[in-house]
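Supplementary Note 3. Input sequence used for the single-chain structure prediction.
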Amino acid sequence: TQDYIDANPETVQKVTNATVKALEWMDSHSAEEIVEKLPKEFISGDRETYIRAVENAKAIFSTDGLISEENVKTPLAVLKSFNEKVAAAEIDLSKTYTNDFVGKAPRNVAN
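The predicted structure, written as discrete structure tokens, is reproduced below.
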């Protein structure tokens, strides 16, 4: 919430820094390399199928941590499709996220 962000900007920045670092790492590594780093219990079923699933899922992640209004329209549409309260609400998407902390995150992390 905004109250948490206002009260804990250092914590929010640290979480953002870690998230950006992870996104950059994911972008620069193959699905197989990503799966190799996961705890074994995260992999359900066949490892090769899991690798293919990660490869397909990589496209949904931001490569730099930035969020655009286009990025949040789809999740809102999905929520509206099954949640009447969300469907009836007028939601200003620009008030649901900020890129302020992402802009301060270190870049070009060594892999």
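The two ends are 32 Å apart (CA to CA). Residues 35 and 42 are 9 Å apart (CA to CA).
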